[in-house]
Fold these 3 entries.
Entry 1:
Amino acid sequence: MASKTARLLALLGSQPVIPVLRISEVKHAVPLARALARGGLKVIEVTLRTEAALEAIRAAAAEVPEAKVGAGTILNAKHFDEAVKAGSRFIVSPGLTRQVIDAAKDSEVPLLPGAITPSEIMAALEAGIDFLKFFPAEQAGGAAFLKSLASPFAGVRFCPTGGVTAKNANDYLSLPNVVCVGGSWVAPDEMVRDGKWDAIEALAREASKLKK
Ligand code: 3PG
């Protein structure tokens, strides 16, 4: 697990913001991944919340070599396997279940599972996982909540997502237990639908300049 965690930290820690994408049409995957990469956000998370998601991962992973494509909203072992087969370089889950942990143990592809409460974090530590998604960040208590986890859980690092925006990203990025944040604000649905790739590139460029 340790070397997989190190790989995941290196990958997600290479940029301050991980775009969390909801891709409804496969044809958007490649231009969207290219626009984000041009703006400096090469690591992207495609959530399995649409019919098109797996095909979108396949297309972006195959056709945009500069992009590092991961899959999000992985809820079970079947999702995990399908996402890996589609070419995902990392897997994100909103929570932490035995089934998802077991799927990750059998795979070379690293897992970023979600945990919020002290008990969930302790369960993650028991499974050998100390890099976690903190979701839904704003709704669960925001940066103040996450900050208060740093003292009892020294050494546990987080990627907060959910309600993170250009306005509040720094509140999280300035915390010592935060590696990066995730958010959908860099690829708004309307801009994707209308093919506003330059505008998305500009949002990505702004986000990529945030300081960790
Ligand atoms: C996620 O899955 O990480 C979140 O849905 C992203 O949340 P946001 O849309 O509030 O950025």
Entry 2:
Amino acid sequence: MARGPAGAAAVLGPLLWGCALALQGGMLYPRESPSRERKELDGLWSFRADFSDNRRQGFEQQWYRTPLRESGPTLDMPVPSSFNDVGQDGRLRSFVGWVWYEREVTLPQRWTQDLGTRVVLRIGSAHYYAIVWVNGVHVAEHEGGHLPFEADVSKLVQSGPLSSCRITIAINNTLTPHTLPPGTILYQKDTSKYPKGYFVQNTHFDFFNYAGLHRPVLLYTTPTIYIDDITITTGMDQNTGLVNYKVFVQGSEHFQLEVRLLDEEGKVVAQGTGDQGQLQVPSAYLWWPYLMHEHPAYLYSLEVRLTAQTEAGPVSDFYALPVGIRTVAVTENQFLINGKPFYFHGVNKHEDADIRGKGFDWPLLVKDFNLLRWLGANSFRTSHYPYAEEVMQLCDRYGIVVIDESPGVGIVLTQSYSNVSLQHHLEVMEELVRRDKNHPAVVMWSVANEPASYLKPAGYYFKTLIAHTKDLDPSRPVTFVTNSNYEADLGVRLGSPHLFSSPLPVFWCSPDACSNALQGRTAPYVDVICVNSYYSWYQDYGHMEVIQLQLATQFEKWYRTYQKPIIQSEYGAETIAGFHQDPPLMFSEEYQKGLLEQYHLVLDQKRKEYVVGELIWNFADFMTDQSPQRAMGNKKGIFTRQRQPKGAAFLLRERYWKLANETRYHGSAVKSQCVGNSPFTF
Ligand code: GCB
């Protein structure tokens, strides 16, 4: 489905790798402060899906020019929420094309009259392509459904006597080979089987393509001279914590900056001036992961105060950023946090729940974190796209370590390796790093999940993408998650960096195949090898007895080739809660437990050598496209979609707390852990 007027704007410029962050401006989370106010726009918006044949009626009739109710009927639509599951209209659930959201907002008088106030509209996420108008004037366009974008609307709201404004957002959920994630539209032309113009959206990933305004939308203010971005990196020198800061200011070149670091008691422990520098914190408290230390997730507060003189008088801006002091490093067989071996015992998640789809929801978020901590999970991967900023903030606060993944999932078509796709993927990594760079919980970037890394252009694509991500953030390792079987993966067969520095080995393949293989190799570029495998599920169905051999082979082959630490980034079994069968049969709770136990036997051997983590697939059941393989979604959760435990949750809980005790940094056995005021006891 063509994206219409917006499609043209998605045409992309020259490739940008190798240079510093190319995005204009920062994306600091909007926090209230003495100089900044917020106005949440969550609640009911007016909504209409454009069901016209070409889906462009809204543009042809310019629905953004007047209130939406004047151009036709509207529905009430909650924000944040996916639009798909809240209604009773089956056509809306599977709708592909443009939908229109609108909200009238009354603004505080100062915002519309004080020209020293900057008013910004921020959209946490709009899946997938969004165009925004304020009072009928185009203010922003954004491609990508999982990262925030903003528009400075000061001039518009300050230009007349109005004390309200009308925000219109058109969103298109169409996925093409060049979007992230990619997809294709299949037009069915056989009129004996399908009505004229019939098309469906096809995707190559295993979750439902929910769409809409998924995260909070808000207006916030800053002064016109303001703190636009802050970049923090941290380190340790003996017992002294090092906080390197860089502050970016917009609106003037003449300003003063004061920076103070406060501990959890509010005591100033270090201070500096100017737009960059290093703060030194003697006897610093480190940010430790949950269950790794008796006081995990220690957060300082970096207070940045800007002052400037203008003709209209003094201006000041204030922003407080939570800061965790910690280091991350990778050796040949270890993942180190604060110099100590860290073992990921955690989960893969999805942003997914009944009714709200991918809509952000505080009760759901708090429940999920309570379950994670009950489980003894110390980490998760944001499979398969960046999660809401509020999720990342809770990870910082609770010490839940994050592998932060881009929406690069389902990259399996050759077209999705084109320069247009690569350019977009590079920009998405820029947006992701810009948003999440200051979270201590984020310890690694994942640029993709299960791409067809055997295709010819994959080598160049991933080499470029990973190099760019490392340029953007040299302080964190980078990975992508592979499901390649060692033997089937051309890249692995030929890709060892050691092979290239020694005399060329005798290859079994033809010159053409060799050159394909060399270009297809991708694993040499990653710092940690993340492997997904589903032994006795997608192969050798029902034969749990082969798991140990196959898993041990998988680990050995990968490790012997690359000498890099390995994470079992997915494993699991489809399980329908309440199905019981002993001896175990597939889909029963007993089979899920049995399969996990077989994996654990091998993980327990290999974690003594080079395996540095295990992430179960999946935390909870989640919705997918309809298919004969999926019974109302993917059921590999250890919790149901309603967050109730299956038997495997208890098994994993036992294991994770045991692992925590074995891999804990110091102190006696851990029976419980307090984070903030909430105790979690095994
Ligand atoms: C995978 C994918 C994940 C799927 C899972 C499954 O390898 O990474 O997105 O949901 O397998 O259950 O098939």
Entry 3:
Amino acid sequence: MKSDSSLPSKDTTAWGRRRFLNTAALAGLTMGAAACTDKESGAANAPAAAPAAAPDAAHAGTNATHLKPGELDTYYGLWSGGHTGDMRVLGLPSGRELMRIPCFVPDALVGWGITNESKKIMGTKPDGSLRYTVGDSHHTHASYKDGNYDGRYAWINDKINARIARIRLDYFICDKITQLPNVQGFHGIFPDKADPVDPAINYTTRVFCGAEFSIPLPNTGVDDGTQYRSMFTCVDAESMEVRWQVLIDGNCDLTATSYDGKLAATNQYNIEMGVTYEDMMSSERDACLFFNIARIEAAVKAGKFKTVGTSKVPVVDGTHEANKDPKTALTAYVSVPKNPHGVNASPDGKYFICAGKLSPTATVIELAKVLDWFDGKLEKLDAAIVAEVEIGLGPLHTAFDGRGNAYTTLFLDSQVVKWNVDAAIKFHAGDKAAKYVVDRIDVQYQPGHLNASQSETKAADGKYLAVGCKFSKDRFLPVGPLHAENEQLIDISGDKMVLLADHPVRGEPHDFIIFKRELLQPKQVYSLDEFPLAIKDPKESGVFRNGKKVTVKMTSQAPAFSLREFKVKKGDEVTLILTNLDKIEDLTHGFAIPNHNVNFIVNPQETASVTFIADQPGVFWCYCTHFCHALHLEMRTRMIVEA
Ligand code: K7E
Ligand code: CUA
Ligand code: CA
């Protein structure tokens, strides 16, 4: 197929032919076909695409991606790593990958899953081995203060094992992982931005987590799917303990939170509570489910909860049946068209926008009206919908430029559509002259998430938009059957979107955030006090025996370890503690032991430990694996295991 990146025509008459897909079967077919073939055959099932026109240089924006050697990026990007279960840190606009922060899956560079400290965070079985070595991270979002990022934390989900990880943004490390009880398919995640009750708490204290799959509660292996339920979970941002859960009808997909802290919401594509995709598509409308945070926490405080299985977490009842009276309701189910996907909060704080997925629409829900309904001042909850407009085929996620425009990925059309929220509201209210679609751009190909610089904050700046395309097809050199995916950068500073760059990415691209570099103040040298096991003076080094348990204490200072050799006996359980006493930025050492599955690094002033059985007699040259000094290759110590 051809690989043009030309802009589509602004001719909206062609657009009018893209009709609402109002049968479940057709929608399912179209989605399936496009997902496994190319854009042309996807389009064969869909109404004709807008005719292509040559790119118009006159409308080109002013942003560029190329940085001169030595020039620093102006934005950080935090990216979920997909199957690799880590968080990627990018510099934007260059798109250069600066770091990978391991979370859910072992990492060979830093020794994540090898050191005792990282294993404790990841979670182990009674025999000390890792509980999980697979992960699937989709969503990452950072902590807020005053509606902007405050540089404390970011969170990321593992869909496979229902885990949430926290990243400390001072050291760019994962410091806690919590597994959510009684849920499966933990997908959407979003920190709150303020406390619903206390205005002094204008920063993140909670993280909300949606569970996409429904299961028996407790999970007893029941076959009858009508008994399965899903839950919405609140995790404490500081302690990372699970605070409470809400039992719901339907399921959770993506999650959003309001700037005033009063509301959180999750899109639901399975209000049918089906167990097959045909069942899950049988209703014409699903829901965007709102949670009244203050009321939920009051109910927990008042003891109006139960617990499920062995979990002690309070579970309140958020089902339809229990929440009919708006004045006491904990939840509100706003109806949105068939099988929606993303839900995103506009930076003006007024709206949540639901992307239609199987419906070619975006639904704009006004938050003030949802609050009115909870107060008994809005008779029909669905009157909170202030726009529901056609934008294209397969809408998935929406980003914002802070100038009133929304940008939504169209999976089936392989496009990003730029549309104006106010114009959409006017159109919905009956002003058929209101032109809400502003621009469209082809992307390569089948985009999922997108996000714009500062888009998820009140400081959305409308400069850059990144798009995670699920298929790269012909954009890169072929490398066998597995293709790189394609992340693209688009300039959104002008009237028309301009494609700036393609970047290959290992599967699979999901969510990310982009924010100004000034918002972070990373530290490049640890403090010894961060580590209880720190060996603060090389004189403390040595071999300390307690029966068959041996502790080896060592420090590193380029180009030497504090012990030139150390002796243990065959069969000993050895715990080796290494503190890097070098204080210079960028002076990292590694420590590898041949035949013992040990390799990890210690950054400046960091302490790490490993525990292993010395099960083979012999001499083992432990060596520094991280280039540190002209004498790096000589930086070694001997482990002598006596028979
Ligand atoms: Cu759309 Cu898991 Cu965020 Cu990926 S989900 S695309
Ligand atoms: Cu120390 Cu290389
Ligand atoms: Ca559905």
